[in-house]
Design goal:
The complex is a heterodimer of chains A (266) and B (326). Chain A is of the alpha/beta class and 266 residues long. Chain A contains 11 helices and 10 strands. Chain B has a single domain, classed as ABC transporter involved in vitamin B12 uptake, BtuC, CATH 1.10.3470. The chains are: A alpha/beta (266), B mainly alpha (326).
């Protein structure tokens, strides 16, 4: 496994904490994701994985701490402003526009690249046409790339679960992010589907997009990520390459002993 | 998703339709039909602008109240301030739009049924204000002897053409918005707001902006209606009228501007045509409504789809309305 630590940090998290009443969901988290890196976040249920993503993705405001993206302070930015900066997420439960075709789903994801501004949008200008043509080409490429081309005109709700999950990723990628956060991209998938998603995420990185992947499937995470952050009770338990992390007694004791045994079963 | 009809076809169809609407009264004139047609044109503005709000995922029960604010603004500016109508009309657009800009950012944070409830209350509140602020609004008797916009408008045919002109502009704007990227974003946020925001759509800002535009357009209906009737009363703009505007959209299928127009024709013309059978009017009206909603959940537009389906042999699924409440 190649560790990509040479790139400049794209996302930096400093002392991030979030409390809900008396519950400390995330405590003093420090983290940096390099340009072109795939970072995994693992931990048992309730470890604070999804809260961490929600803090970074603008769904919650942190109680304290900062989030820096590409050198800019984006702490507490709403999701649409983060997306404009190049930080896009997917959701844990399958989230696609069920009543629409796969292609239209992608168009909705490409809003940032289709929208010429409110009033210009009302006049059918040559520029709007050019934007549209460009986005259609981009969507064709994206669908080919993710193996969704054959479903382009199918309604999303009629697609198999695994394909819907991939479509969720396609919607995020249509926004042309610099960093995607994937919240449990392989939950409920078969082993083959999981391998397919792993290869897809690697190809996403190949296209110059960094990724943060949340999951508790250790086999999936270690086969994919450059570095892994292990969360436990909202705190960093360990961080490093998958090999380093798995070698730490604290990790094995707290989580991986159990998780490892489980990871073999679908 | 239905394939969008190509813009050229839509434009050609629209132009042909408008041309027909301009010319038919010259070939065959009936003042009763002309009156109904004028009403339909005026209400088409309210129904289509309400659909803009509905398509962001909010069902407003105060749309007629905004039309009322526009109506009163227009009438007062003409009668008390002595403005010519075309300037008063600008007031009739700006007044409800300003109100919407004031309360929209608060109301639009509510979702689903809470938004419906609060807009219902706002509609009632506006009706109370119009009834009790006698010095300004003439109380429940309203304001009488409202002059026509221009002397030539005493001819019902001219008033019909005036209403047609404004209907074409306002409905055209609504259609244009829905066919633009803004419309795509609105349809997307109705289905999943969080997913839409992650695509970089400033969902809340769009909702507020659309609410303001739609309420401003409703003011045009209010002004045209008040100056045609020569009188404006609070009863014209209560929650029942707002509900009517919603039902026009329901009958039309909720997410289709053509459907809203069809619903408007249906709901405005039907009670007028059933005037001869006053005792049966509400019964017939109710039965038709129930039949439409029970058998055509996608609205009257679905009828067209089904007929086409019978011809081509393909099944058409009902397009149920999705709001963020479900």
């Amino acid at each position: 496994m190649m560790a990509r630590t040479g790139g400049s940090p794209l996302l930096v998290i400093e002392g991030l904490s979030k409390t809900f009443g008396t519950l400390r969901a995330v405590q003093n988290l420090n983290l940096s994701v390099a340009d072109g890196e795939i970072l995994g976040i693992i931990g048992p249920n309730g470890a604070g994985k999804t809260t961490t993503v929600n803090l970074m993705a603008g769904a919650f405001k942190p109680t304290s701490g900062r989030v820096l993206f590409d050198g800019h302070d984006v702490t507490g930015f709403p999701p649409h402003r983060l997306a404009a900066q190049g930080l896009v997420r997917t959701f844990q439960s399958t989230t696609v526009y069920g009543t629409q075709t796969v292609r239209e789903n992608c168009r909705r994801g490409a809003f940032l690249h289709l929208f010429p501004g409110f009033f210009p949008a009302l006049v059918p200008t040559a520029r709007a046409r050019a934007l549209r043509a460009e986005v259609e080409t981009e969507i064709d490429r994206l669908l080919d790339w993710l193996g969704l081309a054959e479903f382009a005109e199918s309604e999303a709700r009629n697609l198999p679960y695994g394909v819907q999950k991939t479509l969720g990723m396609a919607i995020a990628l249509a926004a042309r992010p610099r960093l995607v956060m994937l919240d449990e991209p392989v939950a409920g998938m078969s082993a083959e589907e999981t391998d397919h998603v792993r290869d897809t995420i690697k190809r996403i990185r190949g296209a110059g997009i960094s990724a943060i992947v949340i999951d508790h499937n250790m086999r999936f995470i270690s086969g994919l990520c450059d570095r892994v952050l292990v969360l436990h009770h909202g705190e960093e338990l360990a961080i490093g390459t998958p090999g380093e992390v798995m070698a730490q007694p604290a990790v094995i004791e707290a989580y991986l002993g159990k998780g490892h045994a489980k990871a073999g079963r679908p | 998703m239905k394939p969008r009809s190509p813009p050229v076809l839509l434009l050609a169809g629209g132009l042909a339709g408008v041309l027909f609407l301009v010319l038919w009264p010259l070939a065959w004139r009936s003042d009763f039909i002309l009156y109904i047609a004028t009403l339909v044109l005026q209400f088409s503005i309210g129904a289509c602008s309400l659909q803009l709000i509905i398509r962001t995922g909010h069902i407003s029960l105060s749309h007629a109240a905004f039309a009322g604010i526009g109506g009163y603004a227009s009438v007062l500016l003409v009668k008390s301030a002595g403005w010519p109508w075309h300037f008063a009309l600008i007031g009739a657009i700006l007044a409800p739009a300003a109100f919407a800009a004031l309360i929209g950012p608060v109301l639009l944070r509510l979702s689903g049924k809470y938004f419906v409830l609060v807009t219902f209350l706002f509609g009632e509140l506006m009706r109370f204000v119009a009834t009790d602020w006698q010095g300004l609004t003439g109380g429940s008797n309203g304001i009488f002897e409202i002059p026509k916009p221009y002397p030539a408008m005493r001819d019902p045919l001219n008033y019909y053409w005036l209403s047609l002109g404004f209907s074409v502009v306002c409905v055209g704007l609504c259609v244009r918005i829905m066919r633009s990227e803004i419309g795509r974003a609105m349809d997307a946020m109705r289905e999943s707001e969080k997913l839409t925001e992650c695509a970089g759509v400033p969902a809340f800002r769009i909702k507020v902006l659309i609410f303001v535009i739609a309420c401003g357009l409703a003011g045009v209906q209010g002004s045209l209606n008040a100056h045609m009737n020569n009188v404006i009363t609070p009863g014209n703009f209560g929650p029942l009228e707002s509900l009517n505007l919603v039902v026009m959209n329901v009958i039309g299928g909720m997410t289709n501007m053509g459907g809203a127009l069809l619903g408007t024709v249906f709901l405005v013309a039907l009670p007028e045509l059933l005037r001869g059978y006053v005792e049966w009017q509400r019964v017939i009206y109710g039965v038709i409504l129930i039949v439409v909603m029970a058998f055509l959940p996608g609205g009257l537009v679905e009828l067209w789809g089904r007929l086409r389906g019978l011809v081509t042999g393909e099944a058409v699924r009902g397009t149920a309305v999705v709001t963020d409440e479900t």
